[in-house]
Amino acid sequence: xxxxxxxxxxxxxxxxxxxxxxxxxxxxxxxxxxxxxxxxxxxxxxxxxxxxxxxxxxxxxxxxxxxxxxxxxxxxxxxxxxxxxxxxxxxxxxxxxxxxxxxxxxxxxxxxxxxxxxxxxxxxxxxxxxxxxxxxxxxxxxxxxxxxxxxxxxxxxxxxxxxxxxxxxxxxxxxxxxxxxxxxxxxxxxxxxxxxxxxxxxxxxxxxxxxxxxxxxxxxxxxxxxxxxxxxxxxxxxxxxxxxxxxxxxxxxxxxxxxxxxxxxxxxxxxxxxxxxxxxxxxxxxxxxxxxxxxxxxxxxxxxxxxxxxxxxxxxxxxxxxxxxxxxxxxxxxxxxxx
Amino acid sequence: xxxxxxxxxxxxxxxxxxxxxxxxxxxxxxxxxxxxxxxxxxxxxxxxxxxxxxxxxxxxxxxxxxxxxxxxxxxxxxxxxxxxxxxxxxxxxxxxxxxxxxxxxxxxxxxxxxxxxxxxxxxxxxxxxxxxxxxxxxxxxxxxxxxxxxxxxxxxxxxxxxxxxxxxxxxxxxxxxxxxxxxxxxxxxxxxxxxxxxxxxxxxxxxxxxxxxxxxxxxxxxxxxxxxxxxxxxxxxxxxxxxxxxxxxxxxxxxxxxxxxxxxxxxxxxxxxxxxxxxxxxxxxxxxxxxxxxxxxxxxxxxxxxxxxxxxxxxxxxxxxxxxxxxxxxxxxxxxxxx
Lengths: 339, 339
Known about the structure:
seven-stranded mixed sheet
């Protein structure tokens, strides 16, 4: 069996996550049992939700255990198989974790899924046609439910989720306004993703300025808000929402590293009769087929051009993950584990 | 025509509302035109929403104009009529405002509604079988939608809305936990309204203490929260909510008088996948018949015993209203305008 490199969670962050919280470990892959498959990971997915699981506090998922492989989505190829439905060379996605190889009990429902790379590059199954894409779809379609002509705002607009929200909202005839950190990200959102406008929160770096910029970019107010960030930007967007606006709370990455960030004026929920709903895509598996069909179609027709930031080699994963939390990535952040 | 006393809004509050913001004015009622009705008000409704309308800021309703009669619900009797559907002596409810008499264009849809006092005292049409009762019904039934066995928490539990929430939730087989300010209010909620438990936030006067008390009173967690108060109590209850909990935001009276009260930890919306929705009952007129039927039935069968605090005479209205904002009332606050 091949030797394996893994990254373990070595300690829980005190405040900001650090490279020192992770540890690179060498191991051997065990021999396969009947029904098992050995997968060589080509790509590892890095996602903001992982930061929450590094803590020990109350959250929707059990914390990531200490001294164990960091959990996470992976895309790769079957290297050995003792399962009749998987053959060596099959391209597959699963939850293999931060390591080069994983042994998967392929009889377990949902543990391993074969995917075709005929139309879509393998890594996109971790992004636009994977968990982030379906996350965008669920929050936008099932919670925000925008009507044609309505205005949709999304934060982290150039990220894996935000870019898909934009594409899905444009497909529904909405005005789409992104918020992102940096002129380059905003240019990408407008020029390549087709957003109607994008606000750089580093340029409009305090609430009044961002609110004024949002008023100009969304002259009819905001009907739907897809929230990935939290903090003061949430306050600004809520203040510009129309009556009966809908807010899908997908992430609050701004507060993941430290003390909770307050919401300054929750009475706006009443004043504007808003509906605010938090969700986790893994609890809505029933929408995956419909969502992936639409997302694949948008990519196939060239209406949605997802971008990736690729780190090279497993050892680069911690640094790339910390960069993701700071918004250094551009589109979906993956780690490439093959040359 | 009879002479009329009115209370006008004389100035907008700077921070806390004061008696000096109101002014008692003497006037004459004008002669009736065809289609008009002169109503003598027996009861004037005092409601927390009126505080918001005293401000000039953005809200769901246009601000109460300065130098005009304070707007508000009234119950009374037809004193003169030039409308074929209303006869002298009919008992009616409408939005007559803070005055002894009002002239109503009875052809205007919804302006005046005849009610029967055979089963229900007239003043209850301003409370349990009026706007506050329907408010409770809409938030509980349409937003919280509790299932039998679930736990419902309501703040301002002994108030006009809160007491109705409790009765409606008990009728649905829920565990009902109230939060109110004072041992007497809590005793009323448990002993007369049939709440399973009631927490006095003056006894448990800081977040950790109230959270511990709530944990004991709601050992299976909180599924539904009917919010009338806002502020730190909102944070405490959100922290005890079960996954997929529902929050109906009806009022945030704690912040009406001053600066907005923040929500300390909005990330709980994501962590617990909560749905939070603000609403205003007047935008949901379609539910009134169903709601009033159920509320009337609960009162008729003795399952819901609404209580009132009655101030005497129009001049007492400002003081009674300020007391309502401070929670000095017990059940529905009305002003009686006849001897």
